[in-house]
Amino acid sequence: MVFPEYRPRRLRKNESLRSLIRETHLSPAQFVYPVFIAPGKNKREEIPSMPGVFRLSVDQLQKEARECMDLGVNSMILFGLPEKKDAMGSGAHAKDGIIQRGIKELKNKAPELTVITDVCLCEYTDHGHCGCLIGDTVDNDATLEILAKTALSHAQAGADMVAPSDMMDGRVAEIRAALDEHNYEMIPIMSYAVKYASSFYGPFRDAADCAPQFGDRRSYQMDPANVREALREATLDVDEGADILMVKPAVAYLDIISRLKDEFDLPIAAYHVSGEYAMIKAAAERGWIDGDKVMAETLLSIKRAGADIILTYFAKDMARLLQG
Ligand code: PBG
Predict the structure, then answer these.
(1) ipTM reported for the complex surpasses 0.90
(2) CATH 1.10.3720.10 given to domain 27-323
């Protein structure tokens, strides 16, 4: 089958033929839109390094949910900016904490929306690390208890799914046990199973005010150089009871997404993170790239690599583009 018998261009002749043989499709129902919830009223504050993304006060959430759902984006993941931070991150599991209030508002006003919560302490600790400290290291086992309390408080407020992003060892099992013990056995866990110590999280740390006050996250997040360790992390989370496995970031780790898709039969999620979003926005603002086209191509590449679910700040923009 060599030229001129076989001509790949035959099937590229027009859009009808191209779409007939298209292998990968994006669907807004598989996007998760990240939302930052901040104290105050009537607040809609644009994040400087993430144009088009806002910190919203609780009263603004209903409108945001409506906008998402009208576009076919039925899931949100929530991040909170608490009023006060402390060494133990106690705001993360406060009954009337910022996230707990946000969940209640969304489940009251937009019950069909799937509300996913990020379970981590870094937005709530005054030192900015993802767990409580012993000296200047994060105390793994003491942190597990706080994470489980946090996940449980999210479920009690009405969350549909919890997503631990802290990278402590054993947290999926601990969270699963706490949920089951309180009759939340039907709440799924989307584990940030493979989360790298990445420099692409910069804008998020501005947005959520959670940059570590000393050191970095390399003693708990993964080394960008490692693939086999990613498989080990994912295996652990499957054994501990994860329902969905996430890879984060996405574009710089397409090989990892592809490996997980091959090796595991759970749904695979990928987080197209703040820095990945900001780079496209910044280049598009300068007129150096076509922002919409690069967005579409980027999200397609994540899907093609094997992600079933994409967490992305582009969720609404991409859904709009798909609607034409
Ligand atoms: C919390 C968390 C982070 C992100 C998601 N959950 C920050 C971090 O680990 O530093 C990053 C998301 C993004 O960059 O868009 N631990």
Answers:
(1) yes
(2) no
